[in-house]
Amino acid sequence: MTTLRLVPGTPDGVLAALAGLLDGSGTPFAPVPEDAVGAARVRQAAAPDEPIEDAAGVVLTTSGSSGEPKGVLLSREALIASAEATHDRLGGPGQWLLPMKPYFVGGLQILTRSLVAGTTPVVVADSFTAAARKLTGVRRYTAMVPTQLARYLDTDLDGLRLFDAIIIGGASTPEPLKARAAAAGVTAIPAYGMTETGSGCVYAGVPLDGTSIELDAGRILIKGSTLFSGYRLRPELTADVLRNGWFRTQDRGELVDGRLRVVGRVDDVVISGGVNVTLTTVQARLLEHPQVKDAAVLGVPDADWGTRVVAFVVGEPSRDELRDWISELLPRTWAPQDVVALDALPMLASGKVDRQRLLEGVR
User: Fold this and answer.
1) What is the 3-state secondary structure (H, E, C) of 119-174?
2) Given 48, 228, 276, 331, which residue has the most CB atoms within 10 angstroms?
3) What's the confidence (pLDDT) of residue 55?
4) Where is the AMP-dependent synthetase/ligase domain (predicted)?
5) Looking at the 3D structure of the chain, how many domains does it have?
6) Do the domain assignments include residue 162?
7) CATH code, 341
8) pTM
């Protein structure tokens, strides 16, 4: 009987386990974060004492930004297919910089790409620019979440300019941030994907080779060689989202000039006072305000409204000013009933906004 092996979620620990898995000498594993909460979530979602499912290579725990974490089964073949498709899209293998945790799919796939390319990854310890200058490969790559890109544009612009390509994933990249990176001469490529797709599988709206997308009443469906095998010990949930080889995501999208545009999650449309409100559209409008540095918009259960629209904003504008700003382009009924000012949005280790912590503060 083969069971799941737990390994330290450090760059060295994950790299060693991953190297064994890819060359066939290792066994299925799950990276365990250093913090107690993260370790408990891995044990909850991965169940290491139970026999491992067929074709499993690595089990990654989803961030649980919107609810219960799940153990995602990724095969050796899916990991390699994702790495090779990424290199093909970028113009060839290169050397990678790791600025994120490797126990989430974005960080783990940086290490996979390095092993597939036969190059040595460089880990960001303190200074991003100092780490970037250690890269010696002909092609230099990295990947990060939008929050990191925004921060490094302020503090490490010289380092960002050293890269041939920077993959931006883990969350939607705001249009103002894309424009800012382009104006600074930084080659930032927005990617769409998730743990279940082996990291980003659509770059700048175009699927990687081996990946197909379809829309079913606006819901994004994905098929291809990078897809996960299922959820750890959750056959009913797996059957619900994997149908005839297609993964039914929780995201809505549209095709614009043949490119995929992600417009939000299926549950991002709420009914507030009898009106359908698209939360991601409200959030995007808030981020266009010159004094708003960051924002998140959530629906909160409310006895009077059904769902109350609440905006969490990093910036100086008042509630009335932001409601007027929203109403200039969107229906007045979409303007948030409440605006919560924060010094910074709470973030998960994966780089996503911690929606649960935000909701706990307003319920």
Assistant:
1) CCCEECCCCHHHHHCCCCCCCEEEEECHHHHHHHHHHCHHHHCCCCEEEECCCCCC
2) 228
3) 85
4) 45-208
5) 2
6) yes
7) 3.30.300.30
8) 0.84
